[in-house]
User: What shape does this take?
Amino acid sequence: MAISRTRFLSLRAAAAATLATTAMTAGLAAPAHADPRVFTARITIDNQTRESFELISYEVTEGENVISPNQTIPAKSSDWLKTTANVDQGGTSGSVKYAASGGGQLVIYFSNPYEEPNSSNCFVPEGLSCSTSDNGQYETEMTFTITNA
Assistant: This one.
């Protein structure tokens, strides 16, 4: 059974359109970046003091916010926040500032940059101390433990 040339071309065009649609709906990956690493920073504030901390400000200076900190960190509890960035964004960094119920401010800075070591700073009111830990990875987990001095 022979088909006409017009019918053949019509079937061929329909098959090509079906293949193109199938490829598009199959979720083929977009071209990857030269360096696919994603930078995240999960920042935990572990309040081991008798004071509570009230959020004054939170700023992501590089990258994007994923999870914001709570408004208050009660005594003997903890809270966390999370930021993210890709290599094109240069890593992720930010700061968070709290008012301490006993007076003064708790200020935390964190940075998870591209091709440099992670860094952090913690400033606490008199009578308190701050220690930090960091896994040093692209998907870093930094913990700031606040204690009575």
User: Anything to note?
Assistant: Residues 38-148 form a domain with the Mutm (Fpg) Protein; Chain: A, domain 2 fold (CATH 2.60.270.50). DSSP finds one helix and ten strands in the chain. Strands lie at 38-47, 53-62, 64-67, 72-73, 77-86, 91-100, 105-113, 119-123, 128-134, 139-148. Confidence is low (pLDDT under 50) at residues 3-9, 15-34.
